[in-house]
Amino acid sequence: MSAVLVLHGAADANAIRRALPDVLVHEVPDLDSPPPANTAVLVLRSGVRLGGRELDALPRLRHVVRTGSGIDHIDVNALRHRGITLHRNAEAGADAVGEWVLAAALALARQIPLGQHALMLGRHEKQACMGASLGSLTAGIWGAGPVGLATARALAPYVGRTAFAAWPSNPPGLRELPQTALMEQSQVHVIALPLRPTTEQSIGADFLARVAPQRPLLICAGRLETLDVTACLRALADGRLWGLALDPVERKHLPLLTGSTTPLNLLVSPHIGAQRSDVRGALDRWAIDLLRTITADEKILIEGGHR
Fold first, then answer.
1. Nearest CA among 211, 105, 112, 114 for reference residue 158
2. How many other CB atoms are found less than 10 A from the CB of residue 29?
3. H/E stretch holding 142
4. Which tens digit of pLDDT belongs to each residue from 212-256?
5. CA angle (112, 115, 117) in 5-degree steps
6. Is the dihedral of CA 258, 262, 268, 270 positive or negative?
7. pLDDT tens per residue across span 271-296
8. pTM for the whole thing?
């Protein structure tokens, strides 16, 4: 009998079992150990690599369900080559990420992380924490996917102006500026880019040099690998950035962020942008409805047998 394999944190495995009592559902923490060879559907979260090596251990896999947006950790070409269908829900968590960006922008503009960091180091730095009104700042958004669009909606009522970096694939009707103009005019930069070879570490030394005259706030809501994190932290420490907020921090990134003994206007969080209970519920319902459709169409999951 074929099975559904749920990686812990990707969906509510018990809810799937209750909704689909005739389907065999396994839950595992990761793919480091050999998964059940009869897995026909894999429900995947962010931060877990799915490439050729992992697919070799899943010879009966036919569907990958990504309960979220980013797919840079998935070898899409390998899936296509093996005839495996990829399903994802890129919209469910976008508004929650936009809300996180608004919270980060407000916190950085008021220099709350700087004050908190100083206190944790035993220092009272009230005078250093002079903030600015968020309404006096203009925001540039890099990336016009679901998260970028949600960010614009969240920020628009509270900042002076928002604009997107001009790009051919942007949806029509957006307020756009050429990238050079956006770097020169924005006091807040929100990075919501997908991770691709062309975007990896694209927010690095050249970008930081161009925006330095504005001393902007820099907020990453996409993938951390789109930033040269070391260069960004250096720019924050020497004053070329006024504040830095990083949400998509995975365990592997921790060595990049430890060891500072100087108070910084730095906000970091463990990839919680979409970690909201209503979003989790919506994604669980979506996954269950999708699995119900898959298992209805693919009787192999219930009856066993071979393709």
1. 105
2. 10
3. strand 138-142
4. 999 999 999 999 999 999 999 999 999 999 999 999 998 889 999
5. 105
6. positive
7. 999 999 999 999 999 999 999 999 88
8. 0.89
